[in-house]
Amino acid sequence: MNNKLSKVLTKEDSSFIRDIVKETVEQIEEKLLGTVLRRLEILEGSVFEQKRDIEKLQNDVFEKNKQIEELKSKNEMLHAEKSTATIHNEFENNTEQYSRRNNIRMTGVLDDQERQLSSTVTQKIVSLVNEHLAV
């Protein structure tokens, strides 16, 4: 069979076949390279988008952490204000309770009006006491 092929193929034919094979291999190589390059471009685009998304998420996390810290400090400040307000309320109640000890509540005073000045009420009481008790 080799003899038959050798008779059919000449040196020129074998170089022609080599050229054809070489061109075919180069064409296949170019197609593969083109396919690989397209896939690489797609992957690069995807990687770029993912990188951008990651950076955005990192910025979001940074902002959220900043908000959390601000809320924590505000919460601590409100707790401190609440404690201070509670202390002030207790002090106010105690002070008011002890100040009532020296007060007298009088009812039935003639010409009694709401929101009268204390000096007016005092004058009326003094005149009533002087009149009725002859002091």
TrEMBL record:
Residues 40-81 form a coiled coil. The keyword Coiled coil applies. It comes from Dreissena polymorpha (Zebra mussel). Keywords: Coiled coil. This is Uncharacterized protein.
